[in-house]
């Protein structure tokens, strides 16, 4: 018997007939976990206002909380891991997620597994836009697919979190890699945050793309994103969204930044589940579940993550990362 009702969206499904405020039986929680992987986006309707403590409990259904080193807003004090965004700075942090399609925590060795969003105060306008990353790859022309398979976008931690005092920590992921749970090809992207690429990382033909080349690659990727189906979710009061963060890109539309006076107060709580995998070309590498979360000071090194990698592979990756660090990289978005 169906545990809840699903209604198709352009990407993902609306969920009806469930109250997330209630403790749910284990089989329903299990079904939600499976449906998140299967459908990529679940939009739970009519949930009223879910307290941040409950959102953290729901987030833990999927794994450990990823804190991401983001400033804790006074309104969610004590609820570490809850990012509170708003169009009123007294109510939450402004300007998050607006720079283009991205996955959350892409700048970590192990990007977030899930992202969970709840609109606590719903304005008259302010959409979150989603895209199915596997579909983009599926629709690529063969020649472009072969080129993209060779690309590794580079993230710098300082670039993402401008207030971080430590030097930039650099992470490169394969642009295309198999999703760790479904093996479906997916993308590691952060449009507006990534500025540089490496070609053929880890092979004899490895080289850094020039700035001009990187700019042109970013335009090419944006062009493909624009051709594909995008789902602009117009929030309604009580909406609570769970996504498979590795399977969908998302961004906050420009209208999320409209003022309280224009559209009413917007408050959203976002939580993330710590990723258990490092994206890799042929396989995603599981990390030990006991790793400590990176804080705002510094990210763990590959060795801190206790990857089950042979020593020579770790050394090789770290050497390349050191090389990238030496190069002047843009650190401001
Ligand atoms: Fe985001």
TrEMBL record:
<dbReference type="InterPro" id="IPR003819">
    <property type="entry name" value="TauD/TfdA-like"/>
</dbReference>
<dbReference type="GO" id="GO:0051213">
    <property type="term" value="F:dioxygenase activity"/>
</dbReference>
<feature type="domain" description="TauD/TfdA-like">
    <location>
        <begin position="11"/>
        <end position="271"/>
    </location>
</feature>
<dbReference type="InterPro" id="IPR051178">
    <property type="entry name" value="TfdA_dioxygenase"/>
</dbReference>
<keyword id="KW-0560">Oxidoreductase</keyword>
<comment type="similarity">
    <text>Belongs to the TfdA dioxygenase family.</text>
</comment>
<keyword id="KW-0408">Iron</keyword>
<dbReference type="InterPro" id="IPR042098">
    <property type="entry name" value="TauD-like_sf"/>
</dbReference>
<keyword id="KW-0479">Metal-binding</keyword>
<keyword id="KW-0223">Dioxygenase</keyword>
<dbReference type="GO" id="GO:0046872">
    <property type="term" value="F:metal ion binding"/>
</dbReference>
<protein>
    <submittedName>
        <fullName>DgyrCDS3748</fullName>
    </submittedName>
</protein>
<dbReference type="Pfam" id="PF02668">
    <property type="entry name" value="TauD"/>
</dbReference>
């Amino acid at each position: 018997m169906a545990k809840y009702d699903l209604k198709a969206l352009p990407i993902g499904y609306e969920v009806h007939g469930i109250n997330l405020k209630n403790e749910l039986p284990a089989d329903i929680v299990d079904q939600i976990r499976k449906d998140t992987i299967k459908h990529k986006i679940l939009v739970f309707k009519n949930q009223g206002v879910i307290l941040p403590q409950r959102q953290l409990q729901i987030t833990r259904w999927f794994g450990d909380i990823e804190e991401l080193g983001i400033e804790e807003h006074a309104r969610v004090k004590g609820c570490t891991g809850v990012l509170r965004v708003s169009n009123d700075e007294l109510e939450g942090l402004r300007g998050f997620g607006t720079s283009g399609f991205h996955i959350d925590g892409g700048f970590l060795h192990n990007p977030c597994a899930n992202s969970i969003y709840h609109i606590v105060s719903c304005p008259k306008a302010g959409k979150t836009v989603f895209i199915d990353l596997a579909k983009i790859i599926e629709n690529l022309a063969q020649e472009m697919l072969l080129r993209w398979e060779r690309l590794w976008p580079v993230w710098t931690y300082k670039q993402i979190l401008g207030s971080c005092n430590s030097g930039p920590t650099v992470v490169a992921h394969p642009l295309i890699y198999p999703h760790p749970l479904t093996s479906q090809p997916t993308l590691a992207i952060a449009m507006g945050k990534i500025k540089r690429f490496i070609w053929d990382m880890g092979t004899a033909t490895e080289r850094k793309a020039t700035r001009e080349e990187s700019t042109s690659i970013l335009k090419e990727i944006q062009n493909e994103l624009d051709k594909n189906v995008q789902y602009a979710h117009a929030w309604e009061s009580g909406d609570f969204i769970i996504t498979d963060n590795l399977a969908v890109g998302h961004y906050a539309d420009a209208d999320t930044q409209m003022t309280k006076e224009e559209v009413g107060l917007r408050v959203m709580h976002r939580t993330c589940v710590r990723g258990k995998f490092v994206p890799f070309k042929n396989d995603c590498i599981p990390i030990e579940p006991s790793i400590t979360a990176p804080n705002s000071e510094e990210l763990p090194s590959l060795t801190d993550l206790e990857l089950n990698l042979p020593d020579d592979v770790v050394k090789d990756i770290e050497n390349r990362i050191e090389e990238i660090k030496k190069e002047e990289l843009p650190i401001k978005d």
